[in-house]
Every structure is written in structure tokens, then in C-alpha cells.
Design goal:
alpha+beta; three-stranded antiparallel β-sheet; 55% helix
Length: 539
């Protein structure tokens, strides 16, 4: 048994020893793996890594191969080979153009990519051409200079990291803090100037939001400095990978915060502008816009965070689209109501506070929501009308009237003398003219008809106040003034009645009222009532 096992083990060891990594340029995965593998400490053969560089040979090819790896390591870009294509004929299709290339990091480092030349894959001509400028961006001139002037003590290691790197990290953090303070003051000054130029006014609430906005904006500038300078500290791929992942996640969170605060600023400014407009529908649009924009920012921010964590956002969006379509089909009424909401805000058939008549419902518009509009009727009950229905039916907007017309009839007794009727009508006209809430250039006060039990004086006025409650208050004051005028003149209002007249009846006097028809007395009475009415309304 031992004689059988020993040859078997020898053959296995020999087979493993013979299994060595060779230069393979047959596909994008093989080319990138060849390049990075032969620049690792355990398998360091830079001449083989240089085989992935097209059109350059010797030391120059080795130098460019090293620079590509140093750039990737410096920016903390870790290559996940499970996602790199192994197809020799892989092509990146844009429109109708086929491009046989593969970009390793399309968003963070789009200039480094491999392309197919002949039957093999190499780093592209553009990458080779731009690699020196990319290297200088990641590792500026002062990196080499700083390393040369560092004393020998600075190269001693603590926890496997050279001391000068700790010191430069502290210097970098101090510089970032200075940038934060300076940018914070400048950004607050500029934002306040912009806000004042737009609104022409100062607001404590808006300034509070602006101050909150300057914090993340300043931090973003500080993080930008760290993001740019940290690769020059040369901590290596493992450290840089986690540092830059943390920086990118933090930066994304701060961008989300910035946009959320920016939305608050925009909504605050829009709210101030909306309050200056006549209609109140713009005010109702403020919370709807705020929720809508906040939802968009959070959605895009979460997608960005998922991308940083390696989640395939394309699949997430596709799944959300399919799910959204299914929900939309299952809830068509909700979609119709949402469209109806947008149509109401675009057409503006009414404003908040308007009295409208919609189909069989009449009342005051209190709120326009995403799904329905709330209307409060005269008996204080609430109607919730779906916006899809409200956008289709005929709406009679009483709130858009220029004036509120009011018509009534004042019936006086049949035995009222004509002169007294004339004096009463003249007094009514003066009341309307001096009433602060009625049009003085358009009204009617006329003796119009003989009814069954009264002589009717028609009063037709137009109230300036469009609000229903204010109109009722205006009517009240007018009615009280009419009653006072009638009492002063001795005019009595009639009510439905029947009078039996007996021409001859012994020792009985007539029931006719004794009216005072002295013209001077009537003028004084009218003047006194009008003066009192004017004085009361001024007060």
C-alpha cells in the first residue's frame, strides 16, 4: 500500500510545481490578472507584467506597468476578477459602434482600460499615453521631494507603517480642518447674498437653514482635499481600499444631506414668494414639492450607496420598474388621482379658501393633496373629492368672482307716503355709498313693485370682500344700518296680512299711522344715521 501511495504523492507534487502562471493576453480578465499578478511581492516579475503594455518595451514598459498598479493602489481601486469578462471577443457596445475594450473603473478611473489589438488584449494606447499625467495627479511632485527630505528616523515602522506617514496624516487632517473653516465662512456669506438677492428680504429661519447647509458643504471640500492628497501617503492597496470606501460613503451621505438642506432653502424661499402671491394654491404646493424632491434625493442617494457597496443597481432599478409597473396596473385610480393633482396645480382652477361648486358639492377648498381635495361645506362637514374626478367635472369657482352680488327686497307698508319712500330710498343709497365693503359706483335702490301686502324696494349691491365669512359680516352691518334708518324715519316694514276696511263705523278712529312728512326733519334723520354709520365703520 505504501509503495502505491509514494509514487502518487510524488506525481502530485511534481504536477503542482509545474503549474505556474504564464503570461496570458487572450482576454480582458487574463491580461489584467497577468499585469497585477507579476507585480505582487510573492510573484514579482515586472518584465512579464510589462507584456500587457502595447507599443512600449524594456524599462519604459516596466515603468508604465508599475505606474498603472500604483495609481490603482493609491486610489484604493480593488479589481474584482469575478466581474471582469473572460470572453476573448468581449465588446463594449455604444449605439451602433462596437468597441473591443473593457474599462476597469468607468466612474472613478475611466482612462485606464484594456483593448483588443489583433488577437490579444493590452492596456489601451490612450492609457499608455495618459499614464504619466494620471500618475502626477495621484502622486504630485511634492511626494518624491518629501520622501527625500525625511530623515532615517521617519522611516522607522510602528504597527508596520512608517512614522512619516502618521505625521503626514496629521498634517493632512489639519489642512482639511483649515479648509473646512475657511469654506464654511465664505459659503455662508455667498449663500446669504444670493438669498437676499432673490427674496429681497432677510429671514431668521432661512439663515438657520443656510448655516446648517454650510457645514456639509465645507466638509465636502475638506474630504475632497483628503481624497486628492491621501494616495500620496502610499499606505498601500489594503489600507487605501477601506479609506476611500469610507470617504466615498461619507461623501455620498454628506451630498445627500447637502441636497436635503438645499431643498429646504429652496422651499423656504419659494414659500416666502408664494405668500406674496394672491392665490393660496401655491402655498399648498410647498409641502408637496418638498416631499417629492426629498424622495428623489433619497432614492438617488441610496442607489449611489448601493453602488459603492458593490450592489448591481441596474438590477435594482429594473426590479423597481417592474414592481412599479405592477403596482401602477393594480392601482390605476391612484395614478389617475396623481395625474389629476398635477393638472390642478398646472391649470389652477381654484385656490385655497375659494368657495366652489363642483357637481353636487359646494364649499370652501381647504387642502389639495396627492390623492384628493378637501372641501368644507357650509354646515362644516368635509367632502373628500378624488383629484381625478375633480379634474374632469365642471367647477364653478365663486372665489374668482370680482365681486359678490347681493340682492334683497325691502317691503314697506302700503300706507307709507311717497315722500317717505323717496327719503328712505335716498338714505339707502347713501348707506351703500359710505359702506366700506360695497361698490359705490354700481348699485340699485328702486321702488320696483306692488306686492300683495307690501310696497317693495329692490336693493342690489356688490360686496368687495370675496371671502364668504367677511361677506356675511358686511351684510350684517348693512342690515343694521337699514334698520336704524327705517326707525329714524318712522318707516315700518310690512308682513303678510289682510286688512278689513270699514268706511263708516260710529265713534271709531282710523288705524292709519301718523307719519312725520316734514322734509327738513327727514333730511336730518337720514344725515344723522349716515354720520353715525360712517363714524362707526371708521372706528
Amino acid at each position: 500500500m505504501k509503495k502505491i501511495l509514494i509514487p502518487f504523492l510524488l506525481f502530485s507534487i511534481i504536477g503542482i510545481a509545474q503549474k505556474t502562471i504564464k503570461v496570458d493576453l487572450s482576454n480582458p480578465n487574463a491580461t489584467i490578472y497577468t499585469h497585477l499578478y507579476f507585480l505582487q511581492k510573492d510573484s514579482y516579475e515586472p518584465s512579464k507584467a510589462a507584456k500587457t503594455i502595447y507599443g512600449v518595451k524594456g524599462k519604459e514598459a516596466i515603468d508604465k506597468a508599475k505606474k498603472i498598479k500604483e495609481i490603482l493602489d493609491g486610489k484604493g481601486l480593488y479589481v474584482d476578477f469575478s466581474k471582469v469578462p473572460t470572453d476573448p471577443s468581449y465588446n463594449d457596445t455604444i449605439g451602433y459602434v462596437k468597441s473591443f475594450k473593457y474599462v476597469l473603473f468607468p466612474k472613478r478611473m475611466p482612462l485606464i482600460y484594456v483593448e483588443k489589438i489583433g488577437n490579444n488584449w493590452y492596456y489601451s494606447r490612450e492609457t499608455i499615453q495618459d499614464i504619466d499625467s494620471l500618475y502626477k495627479e495621484v502622486f504630485p511632485w511634492y511626494v518624491k521631494t518629501t520622501q527625500k527630505i525625511i530623515p532615517a528616523a521617519g522611516h522607522k515602522k510602528l504597527f508596520g507603517i512608517e512614522l512619516w506617514k502618521y505625521i503626514m496624516t496629521l498634517v493632512l487632517l489639519l489642512a482639511a480642518w483649515i479648509v473646512y473653516v475657511v469654506v464654511k465662512n465664505i459659503s455662508f456669506f455667498l449663500l446669504r447674498k444670493i438669498q437676499f438677492r432673490i427674496t429681497k428680504s432677510t429671514s431668521i429661519e432661512v439663515e438657520k437653514v443656510l448655516k446648517k447647509l454650510t457645514h456639509p458643504v465645507s466638509l465636502l471640500f475638506a474630504f475632497s482635499l483628503i481624497n486628492r492628497a491621501f494616495p500620496s501617503l502610499q499606505f498601500g492597496l489594503e489600507v487605501n481600499k477601506w479609506v476611500f470606501l469610507g470617504l466615498n460613503i461619507t461623501t455620498t451621505i454628506f451630498w445627500i444631506y447637502v441636497f436635503l438642506k438645499l431643498i429646504e432653502v429652496v422651499i423656504s424661499v419659494y414659500s416666502e414668494l408664494a405668500q406674496k402671491t394672491h392665490g393660496k394654491l401655491d402655498d399648498q404646493l410647498v409641502p408637496i414639492l418638498h416631499h417629492f424632491l426629498t424622495g428623489i434625493v433619497l432614492f438617488l442617494g441610496i442607489l449611489k450607496l448601493l453602488t459603492l457597496l458593490g450592489v448591481n443597481t441596474t438590477a435594482v432599478i429594473a426590479g423597481a420598474s417592474i414592481g412599479g409597473l405592477a403596482v401602477a396596473l393594480a392601482s390605476q385610480d391612484t395614478v389617475k388621482n396623481l395625474i389629476g393633482t398635477f393638472m390642478i396645480f398646472l391649470d389652477k382652477p381654484f385656490h385655497i379658501g375659494d368657495w366652489i361648486e363642483a357637481d353636487t358639492v359646494s364649499g370652501t377648498v381647504e387642502e389639495v393633496g396627492f390623492r384628493s381635495t378637501r372641501i368644507r361645506s357650509a354646515d362644516t362637514s368635509i367632502y373628500q373629492i378624488p383629484n381625478s374626478k375633480l379634474a374632469e367635472i365642471t367647477i364653478n369657482n365663486k372665489g374668482l368672482r370680482q365681486y359678490r352680488r347681493y340682492t334683497t327686497k325691502l317691503g314697506v307698508r302700503y300706507d307709507t307716503p311717497p315722500d317717505l319712500i323717496e327719503a328712505f330710498a335716498a338714505g339707502l343709497k347713501q348707506l351703500i355709498i359710505h359702506h366700506p365693503d360695497t361698490r359705490s359706483d354700481a348699485f340699485n335702490v328702486e321702488f320696483t313693485e306692488f306686492s300683495d301686502s307690501s310696497l317693495n324696494i329692490m336693493v342690489n349691491v356688490y360686496f368687495i370682500e370675496l371671502d364668504w365669512n367677511l361677506e356675511q359680516s358686511s351684510r350684517h352691518r348693512l342690515h343694521i344700518a337699514i334698520l336704524k334708518l327705517a326707525a329714524a324715519l318712522g318707516v315700518e316694514f310690512a308682513f303678510p296680512s289682510s286688512t278689513l276696511m270699514i268706511e263708516q263705523f260710529p265713534e271709531k278712529k282710523t288705524f292709519d299711522l301718523n307719519y312725520n312728512l316734514d322734509s327738513k326733519k327727514m333730511e336730518e334723520s337720514v344725515k344723522k344715521v349716515i354720520d353715525d354709520f360712517v363714524a362707526k365703520n371708521k372706528g
